[in-house]
Design brief:
Distance between the termini: 178 Å
Largest sheet: 5 strands, antiparallel
Radius of gyration: 71 Å
Strand content: 5-15%
Number of strands: 12
Structural class: alpha+beta
Helix content: 40-55%
Oligomer: single chain
Number of helices: 17
Length: about 600
């Protein structure tokens, strides 16, 4: 048994150079440690002529080829899922030259080492050297590594060959913390935090509004965070992170927390600006600073048609103006809400604005009434009555004021003898506000206004005065004006005209008014009509006039007498046989017949 490998020695197949040896010249393997090939060659020289002991042999199963040369670990082969031990395969031997035996030297005992199948061999005397049995170009896994030469280049170690190992680099000593890496004193940290807080408070308070102050603080926090981040990098480079700095963890955590807090504060301060606008707008609205509040709501993102806060502010502003009796300014605020904020979310404020708008118009009307600006009052009140959101209460209030305004207008116009305007104003009261007290107070004044207007119309265009007199006589017959109108309506009227005679041999010098003339009448009947007529002379210039003629329809007939004969004549239409010249005498106005001629027409 080999004292090192403790393996059973088994006969191996004889090598080519062993065929000349006798089979009975085998010797037992000496009980010695394995020595290196270089040592074997020195200790056991082999002479080809000398008779040598046979090498120990071991069978090799199926003669497998080694995967590596010079490796101290045998290859394992897989067979049916089990791991089998593969024997080492020795390189084939060739003819071994036999140098001259060197001088005998004392045997050196090598230091035991691990088993090497290529370089290990039995240690008995006269065993042939195997220094040249290793393959000339074995596989070297380190051949391509930097600093390792190709080929077999193993360090000579006790029983084992290892690749050369580079010496480990000398570790760099840790950096000594500099002045910048030293921790700040507690008073410095607290003082710095205090200054930051004061700085941010001042920035918030010095902005044009809350959002502007927050924007300033956001920018300052971002800048400070970046500066502290740069300072942290400089301090780390100065040794703050060195293991020699016992407070490095605390310093790093504190700095990181401050920087992160600054960045977070910057982002939050920047992102909450719309909310700050809204919050400040609420505050300003509560302080009744209406326009600044509207500006803040607008900057906060509120707008028509669905900005409920904005609509509420406009409405509240208008109501406040109503309270201070600045009604015209209030109307502009209410109009903004009513016209622009049409979304359902703002309908509550729109209703408030409508109520305020009515109140403003009524208040404005009262101011006009107090100032005796009745025309201005009626304009405002007529607008209120025409509003679609003027409810029953609104209608009652506006109607009462409007009736008063129109009554006062009528009274004023009556005093200035502007009878037509007075009648129109009184008519407004009577037609639109018949239940108002003023409707019962204007009866006598209305009669006066109608009579005055009728006389003015009669003087300019009599026919247009007839309806006025008729209304006065009918509706106000209980008044003196009504009675006078009725008398004028019943009074007889004058008939005037101009006669043109084309029959020069018959001198027509009289004209009369009769009834019942008809074409084709006989001479006696025609003269009878003339005898019963109302007669007047035709002047030399042809003009004629009838005075005090009662109302009715009269046919014109004319008469001539030349001392020998009497002539009567009238002109009529050949088809209808009706007289051509008929005087229609009506109420109030005289009749002008124009030019009357005896030219016969078809």
């Amino acid at each position: 048994m080999d004292p090192i490998h403790n393996e059973e020695q088994q006969p191996q197949p004889q090598h080519q150079d062993e065929q000349n040896l006798a089979g009975d010249k085998q010797a037992d393997t000496p009980d010695k440690d394995v020595v290196l090939p270089e040592q074997q060659e020195a200790l056991f020289p082999i002479n080809q002529d000398e008779d040598t002991a046979p090498r120990p042999k071991r069978p090799i199963e199926d003669h497998p080829t080694f995967q590596e040369y010079g490796s101290s670990t045998p290859a394992a082969a897989e067979s049916d899922g089990e791991s089998t031990q593969v024997a080492w395969q020795e390189a084939p031997y060739g003819p071994t030259p036999q140098p001259a035996p060197p001088p005998q030297t004392p045997q050196v005992q090598p230091v035991p080492g691990p088993y090497d199948p290529y370089n290990s061999q039995p240690s008995w005397p006269n065993y042939p050297s195997q220094a040249n049995t290793v393959p000339t170009n074995p596989y070297n896994p380190y051949a391509n590594q930097p600093g390792v030469s190709s080929g077999v280049n193993y360090a000579a170690t006790s029983g084992m060959n290892y690749p050369p190992v580079a010496p480990a680099p000398t570790p760099k000593p840790p950096k000594q913390p500099g002045k910048l890496a030293r921790p700040l004193p507690l008073w410095g940290v607290l003082g710095g935090l205090g200054l930051l807080i004061v700085l941010f408070v001042v920035l918030h308070l010095t902005g044009s509004d809350w959002a502007a102050g927050s924007a300033h603080a956001s920018g300052a926090a971002l800048l400070l965070g970046l500066l502290l981040l740069i300072a942290l990098a400089i301090r780390m480079g100065d040794g703050m992170g060195s293991i020699l700095n016992k407070t490095r963890v605390r310093q790093a955590i504190t700095s990181a927390i401050i920087i992160v807090v600054l960045f977070i504060y910057s982002g939050v301060a920047f992102s909450i600006q719309p909310s700050l606008h809204i919050a400040q707008a609420h505050s300003l609205e509560n302080q009744q600073q209406w326009q600044p509040a509207i500006d803040e709501y607008t900057q906060g993102g509120e707008q028509a048609p669905d900005g409920a806060d904005l609509a509420r502010t406009y409405t509240s502003w208008g109501l406040a103006l109503n309270t201070s009796q600045h009604y015209n300014e209030a109307l502009t605020k209410f109009a903004t809400v009513i016209k622009q904020f049409t979304a359902s979310s703002a309908q509550g404020e729109v209703h408030r604005a409508q109520v305020g708008d009515i109140a403003a118009r009524l208040g404005l009307s009262r101011q006009s009434l107090d100032a005796k600006d009745y025309d201005g009052a009626t304009k405002s009140l007529d607008t209120v009555l025409g509003l679609p959101y003027c409810d029953n209460t609104c209608q009652t209030q506006a109607s009462t004021l409007d009736a008063t305004a129109y009554y006062n207008i009528g009274e004023g116009k009556l005093q200035t003898q502007d009878y037509e305007s007075a009648v129109n104003a009184f008519d407004k009261v009577l037609t639109k506000f018949s239940s108002a007290p003023e409707a019962g107070q204007l009866h006598g004044d209305m009669a006066k206004a109608l009579l005055g207007m009728g006389k003015q119309e009669r003087s300019s265009s009599c026919s247009s005065a007839i309806p006025t007199y008729q209304r006065l006589a009918k509706e106000y017959g209980d008044t003196n004006e009504g009675k006078s109108a009725q008398k004028d309506l019943n009074a007889p009227q004058d008939i005037t005209g101009h006669f043109t005679n084309i029959e020069t041999d018959v001198p027509f010098n009289q004209i009369g008014l009769t009834t019942g003339l008809k074409g084709g009448m006989g001479k006696d009947e025609l003269f009878a009509k003339w005898d019963g007529s109302k007669k007047t002379n035709i002047q030399d210039n042809g003009n004629f006039a009838f005075h005090g003629i009662s109302q009715g329809s009269y046919d014109l007939i004319w008469y001539a007498n030349n001392g020998s004969y009497e002539y009567v004549e009238f002109i009529y239409h050949q088809v209808s046989q009706e007289p051509t010249y008929v005087a229609e005498v009506g109420p109030l106005c005289p009749v002008n017949m124009g030019n009357v001629t005896n030219v016969h027409t078809v």
